[in-house]
Design goal:
The chain has one domain: TIM Barrel (Alpha-Beta Barrel), CATH 3.20.20. 34% of the residues lie in helices and 10% in strands. It is built from 13 helices and eight strands. It has an eight-stranded parallel beta sheet, covered by helices on one side. Strand 3, helix 4 and strand 4 form a beta-alpha-beta unit. The longest helix has 19 residues. Belongs to the glycosyl hydrolase 5 (cellulase A) family. This is Beta-glucosidase. One of its GO terms (molecular function) is beta-glucosidase activity.
Length: 407
């Protein structure tokens, strides 16, 4: 993948080959709701506390078994058969195995690159977690804690992880790029995400000082990370940065095309977030919001950067039959629907509709990565999970909700 600049500003999105991709979430970075069985016998809600409640032998056995079975060569073949061309792989800050008690996973990423080479896929490496978390979410490694940006030594550690990833994979043909850090929780998003209430900290003392990341700090960090990455990353490999949940912050960022090459803006847009912003919980409401809010937003920002929607899906409250209050599940104390509220055809019409409108909106930019490729939650036999199968692209394809023959 090559992105060139023709003047002093970043190149338009049209130069970037259109990405049709899927995330391999919950493989190397765990999310309890996507594989509850992995947390059996513990009260842990996140990856930070899991090894504190299991013996080292049991913890290692669970992790290694999970990693070896969750994603295999066959999955890369399946993804290619759906007409997709890329995967976004979330990786943890301990990927190199230097932050005990956590177990490194660089060998798994090596395998992924070999599989990608074979099946003609590209890989976006996404650094998904940071020590003491960049967002306070369960998927940020430790729930209810967001202090990484306040810890200079840990900020430097993250930069060294990025450098090592660039050194190891920078010349691999299948590398699309490296994403600096996933979903930093900023001053824009902090109150809406309601981190301290939605993700209560296990250790109040450890969470002391938790708070949002300022945009001025984040922009400085991104520039530093760009240069640290680019020292080892050829210009035909992208440096990707997340918008911190405020896409409008970035119009005047990294505009010098002589200094910044091949930079991509990643934004995450979910219907559950649209609901939190007041979008009516109806099929018509979703369609209107996507077409009149998301689509013009992507189109406008694509004049400044190639824009990818690095996370999105078909999940919505109508499909669940209950208001999920921004995607909260039975694990958050929410009570899911006891029975389906839609017939199979009504559900098919709903999801096909939101798939069509979202794919059209993302086409205003440079592509997307669906979240997620799969989950291991049994949404049929486990009470409270009706509608959550929409997070699983394989189940969406199987039920004719997601078109495999789109652009």
């Amino acid at each position: 993948m090559t992105l060139t600049t023709t003047d002093s500003t970043q190149s338009p999105a049209s130069v970037l080959p259109y990405i049709k991709g899927v995330n391999l979430g919950n493989w190397l970075v765990l999310e309890k709701w996507m594989n509850p069985a992995l947390f059996d016998g513990t009260t842990a809600d996140d990856e930070y506390y899991l090894p504190t409640q299991l013996s080292s032998d049991v913890y290692e056995a669970r992790i290694r078994t999970h990693r070896s079975e969750y994603i295999t060569e066959r999955d890369f073949a399946t993804i290619r058969s759906w007409g997709l061309n890329s995967v976004r792989i979330p990786v943890p800050y301990f990927i190199f195995g230097d932050r005990p008690p956590f177990i490194g996973c660089i060998d798994e990423l090596d395998k992924a690159f070999n599989w990608a080479d074979k099946y003609g896929l590209t890989i976006l490496i996404d650094l998904h977690t940071a020590p003491m978390s960049q967002n306070g979410f369960d998927n940020g490694g430790i729930s209810g804690v967001c202090k990484w940006a306040q810890l200079p030594d840990e900020v430097e550690f993250v930069l060294t992880v990025l450098e090592r990833l660039a050194q190891r994979y920078g010349t691999r043909e299948s590398l699309m790029g490296i994403e600096i850090i996933n979903e930093p929780n900023t001053t824009t998003s902090w109150s809406m995400m309601d981190v301290t209430e939605r993700y209560p900290a296990v250790d109040a003392e450890l969470a002391t000082g938790t708070g949002p990341i300022a945009f001025d700090w984040l922009k400085d960090f991104y520039v530093t990370a760009y240069h640290r990455l680019r020292a080892h990353l050829p210009e035909d490999k992208a440096v990707v940065f997340h918008d911190g949940f405020d896409i409008w912050q970035w119009k005047d960022f990294m505009r010098d095309g002589n200094e910044f090459k091949n930079v991509i803006l990643d934004t995450h847009q979910y219907l559950m977030t649209a609901e939190m912003m007041g979008c009516p919980q109806t099929a018509e409401g979703y369609d209107d919001f996507v077409r009149n809010t998301y689509a013009p937003m992507i189109e406008e920002m694509s004049a400044y950067f190639p824009v990818i929607v690095g996370e999105w899906c078909l999940f919505n409250s109508v499909g669940c039959g209950v208001d999920t209050h921004g995607g909260q599940s039975v694990l958050n104390g929410e009570e899911g629907a006891a029975v389906e509220s839609l017939t199979p055809q009504e559900k098919r019409d709903l999801y096909q509709g939101v798939a069509a409108s979202q794919l059209e909106a993302w086409s205003k930019g440079s592509g997307y990565y669906y979240w997620n490729y799969k989950l291991l939650t049994d949404t049929v036999n486990t009470p409270g999970w009706i509608g959550w199968d929409a997070w699983d692209l394989g189940r969406c394809v199987a039920q004719d909700w997601f078109p495999v023959d789109h652009r």
